[in-house]
Write a structure and sequence with these properties.
By secondary structure, this protein is α+β, with helices and mostly antiparallel strands. Strands 4-3-2-1-5-6-7-8 form an eight-stranded antiparallel β-sheet, with helices on one face. Helix 2 packs antiparallel against helix 3. It is globular. The two termini are 35 Å apart. The relative contact order is 0.21.
Length: 260
């Protein structure tokens, strides 16, 4: 069995300053791994703007996903911003791989914060499988090993605590977070909100879907693979689902590492 209809979906994101020079700028390496994905992104900058963005697909759900790395070059030249959503002002998220694009935004925000080599930010998210059934379930996001956010979900809405219980769940949560919260809390809330959607895939037998086109009515246009040019040729990359519930620290084993 490769779909794990039990336990919790877990996602780890790690951002590391791997080069820093006050005169020449620096480099931030980012990694994202969960049940379904493992991507890394590298952002090189001059201290004021993005110089180069590269990405690597280590584990991915559709055969077309790795090609989305080239779309990130659109971000080159943008000003550094502490807001992880700033990348959406430069490029269309739906024309990109959702996960590479989100990770690039986080890397750019980490670069904007500055710091010496080794400066790290890490998010760990837990979405219990029971969240799919409705009823009160607590989802969590830790930052740098410390508890940060815990939301009680009832289906697809937050019921506690405030101010999240009053936030729009669809079509507006990200912008609400940036307007209602300080920049660091907003970033964490955006990470957790995205994970809530992706985590709902845990336990589904996604390998039973042979071609992305089978999902066109449900997901058409939402990301790079689901665009018309790719959806008709994208095949399922089977047997790539992983379970980190028993060992969350196994995620991002290939880096970027905390000691880079």
């Amino acid at each position: 069995m490769t779909h794990f209809p039990h336990g919790a979906y877990r996602r780890r994101l790690r951002l590391v300053v791997t080069a820093s020079d006050h005169a020449a700028g620096g480099v931030v390496d980012g990694g994202l791994e969960d049940d379904f994905h493992y991507f890394t992104v590298r952002v090189a900058h001059d201290g004021a703007s993005v110089h180069e963005v590269t990405a690597r697909a280590i584990r991915w759900p559709w055969t077309t996903c790795p090609a989305a790395a080239d779309r990130l070059h659109t971000l080159e030249g943008m000003e550094l911003s502490p807001h992880c959503l700033a990348v959406g002002d430069i490029a269309d998220p739906k024309q990109n791989c959702t996960h590479m694009f989100d990770l690039a935004g986080l890397c750019i925000a980490h670069a904007a914060r500055g710091g010496r080599v080794g400066t790290t930010r890490q998010y760990d998210v837990e979405i219990p499988h029971q969240a799919q059934a409705g009823g009160d379930v607590v989802v969590r996001c830790d930052r740098d090993g410390e508890p940060l956010l815990a939301w009680t979900l009832d289906g697809r809405r937050v019921v506690a605590p405030e101010p999240y219980a009053g936030a729009p769940w669809r079509r507006g949560f990200f912008r609400w977070a940036e307007e209602a919260l300080d920049v660091d809390t907003a970033e964490a809330a955006i990470v957790l909100r995205r994970s809530c959607d992706i985590g709902m895939g845990r336990g589904m037998d996604l390998d039973a879907v042979e071609r992305a086109a089978e999902l066109e009515r449900l997901m058409g246009g939402v990301c790079f693979t689901m665009q018309p040019e790719q959806i008709q040729v994208a095949l399922r990359h089977k047997e790539t689902i992983r379970d980190f519930d028993a060992d969350p620290d196994a995620a991002l084993a290939e880096g970027p590492h905390l000691t880079d």
